[in-house]
Amino acid sequence: MNVLKILFACRYLLFFPVIQVLTGLALVAIAQQAHGTNERMDDKGRIMHEAMELIRTHALLLPGSMQGVTTEDLRTYVHSLDDYSDYLSAREYAAFLESNISDYFGVQMDIQKKKGVITLFPFRGGAAEKSGIRPGDELMAVDGSPVYGKSVFVVGSQIRGAEGGAVQLTIRSGGRIPRTLTLRRQRAHYESVSLRIATSAYYIQITRFIEGTDNLLSGFVTEMRDASKTIVIDLRGNQGGSLYAARQCADLFLEKGVLLYTLRYRDRVEQVYAEQPQATGASILLIQDENTASAAEVFIAALTRNGRARSAGHKTYGKGMAQRFFSLSNGSALLLTYAEIITPDNFSYHGIGIEPDITLPEDLATMDFNQDAALSKLFDFVNLKHK
């Protein structure tokens, strides 16, 4: 689900012709003022040059021309590259970085932006879900400030803050009238992976791929001593996260040397392979839905397209682009899409999604599989043997 821009103040410099003889003092004053203006122009020009060089070097897609682009146009220009590239001013980037330090807290949800709309995906059991927010709800304002035109990184930094502080979110569900909710930021011990050992299966939920997800998953795999049990990995609502973490997780279930995915850069391709021995040979069933995105899709494709697992559910979101931040010398930053992600069987799924091997009916697609009876119904439907 790809990662990390926003309101860039427009300033216009006006120049007036000097049409009369200036006195010495006036000339000095004008010269000093012009010197300051030139310095500002030099700064803008330098940052623009840095940004353009980064875009020319790293961006996957390019518009036809860069002629006439000014500093004020930079954000709009970057937005024109694709749905995920963005620009953060120095203030915005600093706020984003600050909001990610350990003493900043949130309301336990992911946010995503597509076609200008920011949508919410609450973590199961978190504050956002308990407040009534549902996956796919549209975020319209934070503390009364509209989010239209803002990056998800800036909006995220507005939502996060000091523990115990309140934040107001104006949201809309479907076509309903917007409503405003007040949530308290809280400390929460969050694990991206959970395991339940059921009678007929090992049921794993991966809510997102972050640093340490692979270590947690690897630890759980060592507990799976009964090879006759199916491993069910639930990726519903997983918005992705770290491509590297997803790669390491997929590596656990595939033989060393198997192709995981291909990165298509603007001028080359890079193939990424499994690098460690397969940790388990048990059969695997993946559960996905329309909110399974980004790194989670990479994980699914690596296993299913290599014949290592079957998938059930609904077609995934379809985000097959990789992004990263590039900082500029004035403290601002570009977020650029630098590569397209291709499945092991050479399928480009960006904007399309990945179809499941088995489409589940709505009751099963939304069922809580934390109960043995629910897993039995799932297995019956997908014709898996279970004990």
Describe this structure in words.
This protein has helices at 24-58, 74-79, 90-98, 127-130, 152-159, 213-222, 243-251, 295-304, 362-365, 372-382, and strands at 86-88, 109-114, 117-122, 137-142, 145-146, 166-172, 179-184, 193-197, 201-206, 230-234, 259-264, 269-273, 284-288, 310-313, 321-327, 333-342, 358-359. It is an alpha+beta fold and 387 residues long. The strands form 3 sheets. Strands 2, 3, 4, 5, 6 and 7 form a 6-stranded antiparallel sheet that branches. A 6-stranded mixed sheet has the order 8-9-10-13-14-17, covered by helices on one side. Strands 1, 11, 12, 15 and 16 form a 5-stranded antiparallel sheet that branches. α3 packs across α5, α6 packs parallel to α7 and α7 packs parallel to α8 (295-304). The protein is globular and about 65 Å long.
